Hints:
- By secondary structure, the protein is α/β, with parallel strands linked by helices.
- Helix 4 crosses helix 5.
- The chain has helices at residues 48-56, 106-109, 151-155, 157-169, 185-196, 209-217, 247-254, 277-282, 297-305, 326-329, and strands at residues 10-18, 21-28, 36-45, 58-59, 62-63, 73-81, 93-96, 99-100, 120-121, 134-138, 142-144, 177-181, 201-205, 221-223, 237-242, 257-265, 286-289, 315-320, 338-342.
- Helix 5 links the parallel strand 12 (177-181) and strand 13.
Amino acid sequence: MTDTPVLPETMKALVLHGKEDLRLEERPVPAPGPGEILLAVGSVGVCGSDKHFFHEGRASSDVMTEPFVMGHEFGGRVAAVGPGVEPGRIGERVAVEPLVPCGTCRSCRRGEYNVCPTQLFHGVPGAEGALQEYVVVPAGNAYPIPDGVSDDAAAMVETISVSLWASQRGEITIGDRVLITGGGPIGLFALQVAKARGAETVTVIEPQESRRLLAARLGADTFSSLDDLAGAVPDGYDVLMECTGVQQVRHSGCGLVRPGGKAVFVGVGAQDASVPMPSVIEREVEIRGVMRYRFTWPTVIAGLAAGRYQTDELVTRTLPLHEAHRAWTDAPAGADVKTIIRIGSADA
């Protein structure tokens, strides 16, 4: 740990004012309240939901009504603490869980805090995100990370958590055959999690060749479309992890699940969608949704420390905060998997 740093009075923040209207602004550095910390932000991952906010002004049921700061995949270093927080935490490197439940509703009392109906979520309307130099978060949401875990990996704890929770919803276990539709960051981490949980076969469907090559290096069988599968697993897959949200992919994928298997919907897509009812009813394919995650942060951080997840290979573009708008306006020069905005360095 270090001595209390001298904090600036103002900071840079990337503020979304409306559809395709991002502005880099000067803002006062906020002060942490009781039970809170002030985080000097390190790296921030760009998520598909951020792209929906930029282009559409909404992501699923979260609708933008006033300017806000995006960025829900992040970590950094504790710069200051509020009343009731141990001062020794100043200087600590952390990864932040952005989900803030109420803690008192029936869902929270049952331990199902990820479906808390009044939860806040840093980086969506209602709670400021991390595309700024400093952000205030609850101290209990900031998990210490070991020195061997990089800033970029700390930002990806959130993404891995989605994949881990999806695998837990699918109850993936030793010997399972798993089909993953979509080779983006969540799909590629879902692949790694499934392999770590003992899956016998993991198949990834992804149209982009660069992503398929990466999935193959991570141990998957790969195909460019579901049409190419044609009898690859005649008896069907034990678990489908649908990560695209594309209606036709979701519909066709359900038909490839074995009788009694599970279809786990991770990708959101359209507000309404159909499923193949013969598969669901006559073959008893069980459909399970995924709402973010719960109780995943310690497991993911331990997995990163043990080298269980490959993160560096997924980072295909890095941008500083003053160029962060390019994550939404410019196509990457090469392969496109994960863009990271590097705001500060918590590694120092």
